[in-house]
Amino acid sequence: xxxxxxxxxxxxxxxxxxxxxxxxxxxxxxxxxxxxxxxxxxxxxxxxxxxxxxxxxxxxxxxxxxxxxxxxxxxxxxxxxxxxxxxxxxxxxxxxxxxxxxxxxxxxxxxxxxxxxxxxxxxxxxxxxxxxxxxxxxxxxxxxxxxxxxxxxxxxxxxxxxxxxxxxxxxxxxxxxxxxxxxxxxxxxxxxxxxxxxxxxxxxxxxxxxxxxxxxxxxxxxxxxxxxxxxxxxxxxxxxxxxxxxxxxxxxxxxxxxxxxxxxxxxxxxxxxxxxxxxxxxxxxxxxxxxxxxxxxxxxxxxxxxxxxxxxxxxxxxxxxxxxxxxxxxxxxxxxxxxxxxxxxxxxxxxxxxxxxxx
Length: 359
Hints:
Elements: H1 5-12, E1 16-19, E2 27-33, H2 48-62, H3 74-77, H4 124-133, H5 146-151, H6 156-164, H7 171-184, H8 191-196, H9 205-217, E3 243-244, H10 257-261, E4 270-271, H11 293-303, H12 328-339, E5 356-358
Antiparallel strand pairs: 1-2, 2-5, 3-4
């Protein structure tokens, strides 16, 4: 626990092999770890142990060795520059097969109560293991084999010792460290955040118009948090459920939360996403069907379908699908407002960046 991070950094400069071949035996490129001499303050700057654990988690998050053939890391689908989401409708796994759903952002994941679009997990440490063991995503079907694989790499013994007091590598420690890093990924320095903190000049007139439309006329905050705090869906305005059917399709090709609960009333419902950095996280919806924010707003304007479980807030007084008929001027204002949720510090902060540097 007392080992110097400086020693860790020296050990971390050992060149490691990465494979892009499916058998994982032939190196395609080399990389080395470039870590600071002392841990970044992921949490309280005095909480050294947690900062060291997050440092280990950062390395694990970006390490392709967590996949069967060493080609896919957590960061392959959760890209920092994209608000820790992906820019593909469906992400490619270790064999090139596509995931079933769009990759959601993991920024502010510590604030969530359930994870994945369908809410199949409520423990963040379990969350970290699920993609690793997925037969599509990373392919390590037996997670108990992962510690031995990582132990063969020259940099992990010191990293685990620094985080946990000894160099033992276990599946539990892997998930704990990755969870610590993910818990540290916090988005709170957008211009909207500045505005909400009292900087009234942080938003333009158009953005303020969009905020007003979002909060009042179209009541978007009823699902994406009320009270002007636009972060997570389903908690604001007294709403109880965080899983909603927003009228995408009559036939539920993907039953969403209904698969987890087995309740017909939950079919076609999905968790309402975090809107921080939403301008960076295209494409949108659980299946990535909409490429732009403009298309998303068009859906709410005049594209909502009267589905069996359509949320009541998206219906009119007669029970039909609601038609908001958002004007082009209003749409541009709402898009401008949504762009104000981009946290440029988060997407450039070195403590969340790839620690592996090519030689």
